[in-house]
Every structure is written in structure tokens, then in C-alpha cells.
Amino acid sequence: MTTRPRRHDPERRDRIIEAALDVIAAHGVAGTTHRRVAERADVPLGSMTYHFAGLEDLLHTAFTRLAESMSRQFAGRLGAARTTEEAEEAVVDIILGEPGSNERTLLLSYELYAFAARHPPLRSVMRDWMERSQAALRQHFEPGTARALDALIEGLMIHRSVDPAPLGAAGIRAIVRKLARP
Fold first, then answer.
1. Count of CB atoms within 10 A of residue 109's CB?
2. Which of 3, 39, 50, 155 is the most exposed place for a label (fewest CB within 10 A)?
3. Which residue stretches of the chain have pLDDT < 70?
């Protein structure tokens, strides 16, 4: 009997995670299947169960990666601010989609919120993401303001994604200043 050499593919797990995010963005959590993810990642279907205990494990891992990536971008933008005014401008930039927010990211965020609401183990991913966001904001704002700004950021990003005439930078800046300078 001849055995085939094992294919060395150290990036396979990462490709599967990224493919899962692509599939979630395209089809929603409800339309995400092992088969679709394997096809998108260009891996054998059996790789799915080798690397993940099940679909929920894969979703948890993919959403954790999304939250960590977005948190790094958020913290990086706020960390670059040296003054309160620069921090306020960073908040405006984040709401306007800089850095990193695009239609795909927003769709993934919506899916994470909805999935976490129905699957308690995913709530920890959301809570961790919120805590990291608020910690980045607390570098420049008092805790209650940081929490309010975090909610404002998320809410305005959602509104901007569906509003046919979204609030512009000047309007967002005025709201941020009202919250940041009571």
C-alpha cells in the first residue's frame, strides 16, 4: 500500500476563518455552511471538522477575529490622538468609516450582533469588543463619556449605512463635542 504524502498547508486554518467571514458577509450567518466555507477557502470539506469542533466553533472564531481586528484599528486611531480635540476628531473619523469600516465590516458587525443576541457564548465576544473600545476611549474621556461615545459610534455607523442622507462630518463633530464636553 502506498501512502500519499500529507499536504503541508500551515495557513489552512487562517484561510478557513477568513473564508467564513466572507461567507457570512455574503450569505449571513443563516446561510453559512461548512460546504460554502470550504469551497470559499479552497480546502477539502473534511478540513472543516479537523480544524473546528463544529459550525458554531468556526463562527465564534471568525467573529473573534473580526472583533480583535476592529479593536486594533479603533485603538490605533484613538492612540494616535494627543489631545482631547484630536481624540474627538478620531471619533468622527471612526464614525465616518476610517480606519477599516466598510460595507463588509458593517454587515459582519450586524451579523455578530444578531447572532450574539441568540447565542449566549458569543456575547462574550461582543462584551470584550465593547470593553476594548471603551478602554481606548477612556484614554481621552472619562468612563461615562467613553461608554456614551462607544454607543454613539456604533449607532451612527448603523444609521449611516442605511440613511439616504446621512449626517455629515460637521453634524457628527457637533454631537461628539456635546458628549465629550458636557
1. 21
2. 3
3. 1-8, 99-101
